Amino acid sequence: MRVYSGKSVFGGIAIGTIQVYKKGEQQVKRRKIEDVPAEIGRYRTAKQTALEQLQNLYDKALKEVGQANAAIFEIHQMMLEDDDYNESVENIIETQRVNAEYAVAVTEDNFAQMFTSMEDEYMRGRAADVRDISERLVSLLNGTGAGGVQTEEPVIIAAQDLAPSETVQMDKQKVLSFVTIDGSMNSHTAILARTMGIPALVGASVPLDDTVDGRLGIVDGVSGVLYVEPDEETLAKMKEKQAQQEEQKRLLELLKGRENKTLDGKTIQLYANIGNSKDLAAVLQNDAGGIGLFRSEFIYLERETFPTEEEQFQIYRTVAETMAGKPVIIRTLDIGADKKCDYFEMEPEENPAMGCRAIRICLTRPEIFKTQLRALFRASAFGNISIMYPMIISVDEVHRIKEIVAEVKQELTEQGVACGEPKQGIMIETPAAVMMSEELAKEVDFFSIGTNDLTQYTLAIDRQNPKLDAFYDPHHPAVLRMIQMVVDNAHKAGIWAGICGELGADQTLTRRFLAMGVDELSMSPGSILPVRKIILETDVTKERENNNLC
After folding, report:
1. Active-site position among 341, 362, 419, 500
2. Closest listed residue to residue 499, CA positions, set 439, 442, 443, 450
3. Catalytic-residue membership of 500
4. Is the pTM of this model over 0.70?
5. CATH of region 2-21+149-251, choose from 3.30.310.50, 3.50.30.10, 3.40.50.2300, 3.30.360.10
6. Which of 366, 292, 277, 383 minimizes the C-alpha distance to 330?
7. 474 neighbors 453 (Cβ within 8 angstroms)
8. DSSP H or E segment with residue 298
9. CA contacts within 13 A on the Cβ side of 282
10. What letters, b where the CB count within 10 A reaches 16 and e where it falls short, cover 135-172?
């Protein structure tokens, strides 16, 4: 038995086979070859296998996410069968007498550069596609497969790190747990694990080789430990611990249908955070009162090109209809910082967390913003949708948003397109927004406090930097005072204020938030019932006295 420690980001026990996650990028070395026909044959075999893989991916995506989202795999198949691409690879093999991997890599660079230099936006987007198919070919030629999660049974994923774009594309039914070497307690991998309600470790010094890959593992998300090839005693102990946790979950199930009302009659709304429509089952299963944060940027992260208005509309409509009149708060795209999309073609930044992201992209590239707003307003005719704008720092930004919204509504009206009247709110996640909250409250319908970024900016700590985890304190008095200020200013203006950051699920603060007068908490679906239990057992009047909030 080998034991590895890490930082726990979500509790629970996971038992299963460990699979080392392989990145798509490969190191390619140039080798001289003697048998040219054999090398060309090796390339053609890899190409055929890649085509079969892409067809399987297309069939799977067609069932799970529909034709529009599956179409990318059709495009990749067509590109793999393109005469120009194949002639380039085979010509390099023949004339330079080099290995197929090298020929593919050279062709990838040449074609990607060609597409990138084109004026047409659609054609520029093909650069990412040619890199994708080329990396798939190189992986097959190297004998490492196509990377990613290739499994029939659920596994524990071990990786160096996982980008948001990688995690969102994983089949969540096949993931028991995440274990990463890099990453912080507040990374998007950690947030995803909490959303999925599965144990996860970051900062684990686990080797990503055959000593781990394919071995039986146990992730103890409570103690922050990974056991590899556990002995019988440890396995039995962990199975017992797992059974106890399942029993606790069963008892929490008894709280379904209960109103979130304290002992002294105060009520608070409990909503769920989601990344896409696949999370809806967990929302309903855990009896959430609505969706407090739909991270719409994941629609963009899952794709190789900009999602169309129609594609977005169908997703938002599905979510709204599924929630059957319950509130659905959709955040406009929050791309930037660690959430990157190549096809946005953004300039590299020295400090991306403070760079061009979220609403700043929307206001400087209104064509992207308008497409999303049109989809949101159309979908609002089919359910109880509210729109939330991230990274606000000024009243002027809100005024500009209102101008663009007015333009979108007028266009839809003139075109005879049905739309609703969604409530519009903002995220409070910068100190500037906190200090301006009295003025901002007069302009919007609600506040939702994004405690992840608010903590980061207030404490001047990069929440993605694992070396600073010891200094990253979301319980810092400055953060809590800011939350209180926002709640007070919201109530003064007659609007509600909630929390949609990770603190919403922090059970050590639930009673404090009730005492503060927070109106809504949004969290990962799996946290809804445990937090409800605390609410039902709390006397708010006493909590206010204990925290000197009377």
Report:
1. 500
2. 450
3. yes
4. no
5. 3.50.30.10
6. 292
7. no
8. helix 297-301
9. 24
10. bbbbbbbeeeebbbbeeeebbbbbbebbbbbbbbebeb
Q: Is 475 noted as a catalytic residue in this protein?
A: no
β-strands 496-499, 155-159 pairing: unpaired
Look up tokens 């556990």; give the residue: 230
Strand, coil or helix: 429 = coil
Domain spans in the chain, listed from the N-terminal domain onward:
2-21+149-251, 36-142, 255-546
Residue 89 forms beta bridges with which residues? none
What is the model's pLDDT at position 168? 55
β pairing state of 7-10 and 269-274: unpaired
CB atoms within 10 A of CB 216: 14
Q: What is the pLDDT of residues 408-432, one digit of tens each?
A: 999 999 999 999 999 999 999 999 9
User: Which CATH superfamily is 255-546 part of?
Assistant: Phosphoenolpyruvate-binding domains (3.20.20.60)
59 Cβ contact list (under 8 Å, min separation 6): none
What does the block give as tokens for 117? 């230099």
Fold of 36-142: Enzyme I; Chain A, domain 2 (1.10.274)
| Active-site position among 188, 341, 362, 419 | 188
509 DSSP β-pair partners: none
Tens digits of residue pLDDT in 224-260: 999 999 999 999 999 998 988 888 778 778 898 999 9
